[in-house]
Amino acid sequence: MFTRFSVMGCSLELLKPGEQGIVTVCKTQDELIRKKLISMGIKTGTSIIVDQHFPAFVIKAGNIPMTIDRETARAIYVRVIEG
């Protein structure tokens, strides 16, 4: 009767290079990180692709490449997009 579905989500930091997610929430008590995310335009619903983890954490939000630190990546939670 019902179609099975799964919702897989995690911190952006855990995505592998090439994986993509949609931001579900930004969790941080640090006001500097919160302001940084706002200034970068990262908010609920933003599509993010991880390009690399090392030596720097590089993402694409929309089509804009950005370098962020690990603490900022930990604050961004995404719903992983399969495929």
TrEMBL record:
Alphabetical list of Pfam families matching this protein:
FeoA
Ferrous iron transporter FeoA-like domain location, by residue?
Answer: 10-80
Instruction: Tell me which InterPro entries the record gives.
Output: Fe-transptr_FeoA-like (IPR007167), FeoA_core_dom (IPR038157), Transcriptional_repressor_C (IPR008988)
GO function terms (MF aspect) = transition metal ion binding
Gene3D superfamilies per UniProt: 2.30.30.90
| Keywords, ordered alphabetically | Iron
Q: Does the keyword RNA-binding apply?
A: no
Looking at the UniProt entry, the stretches that span the membrane are: none
The protein depicted here goes by the name Ferrous iron transport protein A
Gene source species: Anabaena sphaerica FACHB-251
